[in-house]
Design goal:
- One of its GO terms (biological process) is methylation.
- This is HemK family protein methyltransferase.
- One of its GO terms (molecular function) is protein methyltransferase activity.
- With 303 residues, this protein is α/β, with parallel strands linked by helices.
- The chain folds into two domains: 45 residues; 227 residues, 3-Layer(aba) Sandwich (Rossmann fold).
- The protein contains ten helices and ten strands.
- The strands form two sheets. Strands 6-5-3-7-8-10-9 form a seven-stranded mixed sheet, sandwiched between helices. Strands 1-2-4 form a three-stranded antiparallel sheet.
- Strand 1 and strand 2 form a beta hairpin.
- Helix 1 packs across helix 2 and helix 5 packs parallel to helix 6.
- The longest helix is centred in the first third of the chain and has 14 residues.
- About 8% of the residues have low confidence.
Length: 303
Amino acid sequence: MSVFSSPVQTAEIVTRLRAAGCVFAEDEAELLVSTASTPEALAAMVARRVAGVPLEHVLGWAEFCGLRVVVEPGVFVPRPRTEFLVRRAVALACAAGGSPVVLDLCCGTGAMGAALIAGLGGTGGDGAEGSGAGEGGARGGGVGRNGAGEGGIGGDGAQGGRAELHAADLDPVAVRCARRNLPGAHVYEGDLFEPLPSSLRGRVGLLIVSPPYVPSGSIGLLPSEARLHEPLMALDGGGDGLDVARRVIAEAPQWLAPGGHLLIETSERQAEATAAAVAGAGLRARAERSEELDATAVIGTRS
């Protein structure tokens, strides 16, 4: 508990959060109190959260795969279910060995790339386009470990590896955030493959993508936190939710190395259509599911 917040004050915060509809009010109050640097900052943070601003935007960070990832206002908040895709990517990389070239499209905050590099126990590149990272959390400049890293995704055989990480997003705010979280990586602003150097063609060992996949007609059904505070381009996947996914899948074979893998997040309902598109692009396709995380990923492998 913070030195400037008494148990009574914390209880009052819990009451306000619960009245605002925060299901995990006690946990959120603890996070707000421990993150705020001054009583005035705490009051402002509580007011924003009560007004419906996502907790991660208020804190300035999100927990993802045992890391604290910087999250700026207006950027898509990384979801716990996406950890499944990262775990599968780490497993594939460990099985293949070597030093993979990793490409993270629709990268948002860069959380997937940061977690993947952490899971491989290596660095993300040669320092080409990132900016300096701090100790992590809301006041630092980049990714930090969350305590002992519980919930992380490291695997046997990964330690000591070095991956070359490239990431891209169309949203300039997301790109700025990703550069904070990926200081050793090449982070590009642009539409999918468009800003990437041609030298990456045929070299990518892991292409990881969490595209927007909510059908346009279902956007209005999303929680207000998402609808009002996250960019529409990170949510709206078009008529059936697969517009962006299809564009990625169509070009993926040109960028994958022989034996390289495309891992794309989707919903359980969309998995069959996504896998069909992956197979149609000439990749060996399979869908994998985590009931624990309510997560679905389609994996396509180049021969």
